[in-house]
Amino acid sequence: MSSFSALLLRDMRLAVRVGGGALMGVLFFLIVVTLVPFAVGPDLAQLRRIGPAILWLGALLASLLTLDRLLAADHEDGSLDLLLMGTTPLELVVLAKAAAHWITSCLPLVIATPLLGLFLNLEPLAIGAVALTLLAGTPALTCIGLIGAALSVALRRGGLLLPVLVLPLTVPVLIFGVAASNAAIIGPMSFGAPFMILCALTLGSLVLGPFAAAAALRHGLE
Amino acid sequence: MALIDLANPTRFLALTARILPWLAIATAIVFAVGLYLVWFAPDDYQQGATVKIMFIHVPNAWLAMAVWAVMSIASIGTLVWRHPLADVTAKAAAPLGAAFTFLALLTGSLWGRPMWGTYWVWDARLTSVLVLFLMYLGVMALWHTVEDPSRAGRAAAILTLVGAINLPIIKFSVDWWNTLHQPASVFRVGGPTIAPSILTPLLVMALAFLLLFVTLHFAAMRNEILRRRVRAMWLMQAHAAS
Prior knowledge:
The complex is a heterodimer of chains A (222) and B (242). Chain A is an all-alpha fold and 222 residues long. Chain A contains nine helices and no strands. The interface between A and B is medium-sized, with 22 and 21 residues.
């Protein structure tokens, strides 16, 4: 078994165990989507209009939740130092962690989207569009969040530093994700154009994220 | 004396102690000249005298982006060449850049109220500059949170380089998305489209703000070097006492 898949399986197993927080993200997603109608009012037409945006915001915030434990837990018990000293390239190591995070935290969000879309009175086409854009965009959220996690790995009082660092960088993903969803529902504008840009953002962050995160780990933990 | 000598903090302190008063005087003179030119610049036929907010708004916006570029180059200096003063440069520049960005947003907002009828609109240029402001605050937060200065410098360097992606987005946002903010009038293919009677005061004010940044930046760098020396002395004293 290659070291990449070994690390991937290890992180996935850790995430679903007690204290891993994988399904906690889905619960948070549900709570956020439930809170919004309390705030904006139960008008179904209005909820249908802002539904894709609410789902995207909820997914963004829920995927942020488990990011800080991504690397900090390994740093605390010393396994991050072992990984740094090992023969596997650090970029692959963090990519394996990102993949595990995506599978255990973001993929459940995508699966939960149809149910929550019903709460927001979205029609099937809208639900499908939002789910597809979330599927394409959440890897970008994970990889960009990886950079923030690596930068704040050794902080004791990190607190809200990770969201503060990560959220401005995720703004383009959010913009194009919601734009693609709305284009599929309303638009004269095509779904393809913003969706392609969203996919480009994901592919770009799949490269940029691990390299920046690995550099942050190397420089930050000396 | 070669440029490399500036890498020595003591030499840097000595050099800036000599040239800082001259920089301050030069800044004041260029500001005086610029404000004189602004006073006598013609009014816009549509906007009247309100157009003169541009002479503050545009230089601040240019500097907001230029300071992030300075921080990015300093970050490369930190990560690639381990230049001794690179992270001092980046740390001193961040609050200044945040201030310029804030002023650009503020003056633009005050200009937008009479011109566009609104203080704010979520168009591409304004939104990307607001994101730049948030990223400045994020870098400052990172500096503030990590205790060891050199570790903080390396972390901030990586964050700065990742955030440098926002600069071309800001620059070309008015070309890519056809929204409310005016498209490029100075730095564009085919040369500026502003009349010289307005372009000259604008460039003089831009030079004045640039000199202001350099003066304040050098002063801030001096403070940061001295701050680190004080910290080192505290640590030595604490170590000797134990």
